[in-house]
Specification:
Blueprint (H helix, E strand, L loop, with lengths): L1 E6 L2 H14 L4 E7 L5 H12 L15 E5 L5 E6 L14 H4 L4 E6 L2 H5 L6 E7 L5 E7 L2 H11 L1
Parallel strand pairs: 2-5, 2-6, 4-5
Antiparallel strand pairs: 1-7, 3-4, 6-7
Bound molecules: adenosine-5'-triphosphate and magnesium ion.
């Protein structure tokens, strides 16, 4: 199932992330693809708040740390990765990524191409593109019925 939306401001992109976060009820792996500055981190800022990450935690880009983790309720965690600087999937072991998979985590990954090539099972892919007016065109691709149903609640 695919769903596309255009956001004209960064606040709109954050709001979209917020609404997705509110719809999430359990572990989920999300890939965010798109060029530099197209709004991936902006989206995650809203997603984190929608998931219930407390305002005391500023949401920053994991540009150099590769991974930032935030507690949510019910033992769920948000793991935000930016793999722009990752050389190979093997390096992920050094940042504890293998320990993450199969745990109670919402995983959201910017620059996910190495993981996609490694067949990491993402539940949802969002692609961010610029249109001619420099707005953001955000497309959702869901895999599986559960995530498709979750997205339906976003659209309606
Ligand atoms: N409609 C919009 N949606 C999102 N961001 C927007 C929008 N309009 C303008 N912006 C601005 O574009 C920039 C997006 O930066 P952001 O860090 O979210 O991009 P990114 O995709 O994470 O980049 P990178 O690949 O470098 O991590 C911000 O400065 C934001 O304020
Ligand atoms: Mg970013």
């Amino acid at each position: 199932m695919t769903y596309q939306i255009i956001t004209r401001t960064d606040a709109r992109t954050r709001d979209l992330g917020y609404r997705l976060g509110q719809a999430v009820t359990g572990p989920l792996a999300i890939a965010l693809t798109g060029d530099l500055g197209c709004g991936k981190t902006t989206f995650v800022k809203g997603l984190a708040r929608g998931l219930g990450v407390d305002e005391q935690y500023p949401i920053t880009s994991p540009t150099f740390t590769l991974i930032n983790e935030y507690p949510i309720a019910d033992q769920l965690r948000l793991c935000h990765l930016d793999l722009y600087r990752l050389g190979s999937v093997e390096e992920l072991a050094h940042i504890g990524f293998d320990d993450l998979t199969g745990t109670n985590a919402v995983i959201v990954v910017e620059w996910p191409s190495l993981l996609i090539a490694d067949r990491f099972p993402f539940d949802l892919t969002l692609t961010f593109e610029f249109n001619s007016e420099y707005h953001r065109v955000i497309s959702f691709f869901a895999y599986g019925q559960t995530v498709t149903n979750m997205l339906s609640s976003l659209i309606s």
